[in-house]
Amino acid sequence: MTDKYFYGQGKFELAEILSGGALGPYVWVGDVSELSGTMSQTAINHRESYSGKKAKVREFFTELGMDWSATLHKIDADNIAKFSLGTLTAQVAGTVTGEAFPTGLVAGDVIQLAKTNVSSLVLTDSVTPTPFTLVRGTHYEYDVFGDVELLALPTTPAPTQPLKAAYSHGATRQAALLNGTRKNYAMRYKGVNLAENDAPVLLEIYKVSPGLLQTLAMITSGNQLAGAPVTFTSLLDTSKPANGALGQYGRYVEFS
User: Fold this and answer.
1) Rounded CA gap, 15 and 204, in Å?
2) CA 117, CA 75: separation in Å to the nearest integer?
3) Phi-psi region at 223: left, alpha or beta (left = phi > 0; alpha = psi -120 to 50)
4) CA 30, 34, 35 angle in degrees (round to 5)?
5) What pLDDT shows up at residue 2?
6) Residues 116, 155: contact at Cβ < 8 Å?
7) Euclidean distance between CA atoms 142 and 111, whole angstroms
């Protein structure tokens, strides 16, 4: 018998199972530092009652299962939406003019603009036809997130409120959390076994239900990058024959 060992590295991909059972395209979820599966079964036992020894005379198993865990390191809107029951939307780049602030503002107030990824912000008052223009760094400051802080307001003359904002905003993508529907996926691992001369390995799980992100670390420290653990539950793929060569859960493929 030839010894074989395993040290795996590779790509972890998911394909959404669409209505009717068709598969969408496989999408690489990015760097995954851990991928492992656990198989389970429920044992049903019977012990006889006639010998006085209570010996086990039957054992059989039901409720076969297979659960998976992965640690993601690609923390982006796509993965967060996928594993938070989220929905993904995009903001295209553009400009805004005449966005009115609340009235009654004083120095020290912070106002959030309607858009993010903000640049080239100009504040004016409401005087017509020639509005007064406030000076960045003297009267206000802002950041890319769309927060505007009023530093001071001129007094002679005082600006006529509401103040109005004109600015540019870049493109963004956002994942709204916990507002979508649950989806099932096909799961695929395309890897190499470094312990056996980079031999290719393929693992396919035909149908999985992903859990929610267990941790979404937004502040990190030390010398490790943030990781987001997520779990998957394997489901029976009844579109495949129970006695077929592929099985109904998945397959592990070695390349000769």
Assistant:
1) 11
2) 19
3) alpha
4) 90
5) 83
6) no
7) 9
CA nearest neighbour of 135 among 125, 145, 126, 144: 125
Residue 92: the pLDDT is: 97
Residue 192: CB atoms within 10 Å: 16
Residues forming a β-bridge with 141 = 149
CB atoms under 10 Å from CB of 39, counted, come to: 10
CA gap 184, 22 in Å, rounded: 11
Comparing CA positions, the residue from 66, 85, 83, 65 lying closest to residue 74 is 83
Mean pLDDT by 10 residues, the chain (256 residues): 92 96 96 97 97 96 96 97 96 97 97 98 95 96 98 92 98 96 97 96 98 94 92 96 94 92
Q: Which pLDDT value is given to residue 171?
A: 98
Bridge partners (DSSP) listed for residue 201: 191, 254
CB atoms near residue 232 (< 10 Å): 23
**SS3 call for 21:** helix
Q: Minimal CA–CA distance to 27: which of 87, 89, 82?
A: 82
Only one residue has tokens 């507002």, namely 179
The pLDDT, as a whole number, for residue 156 is 83
pLDDT at 52: 95
Contacts of residue 165, defined as CB under 8 A and 6 or more positions apart, other chains included, come to 96, 98, 99, 100, 101, 113, 121, 122, 123, 148
Q: What pLDDT score was predicted for residue 112?
A: 98
Cβ neighbours, 10 Å, residue 12: 20
- pTM reported for the whole predicted model: 0.86
Q: Is the dihedral of CA 236, 237, 240, 245 positive or negative?
A: negative
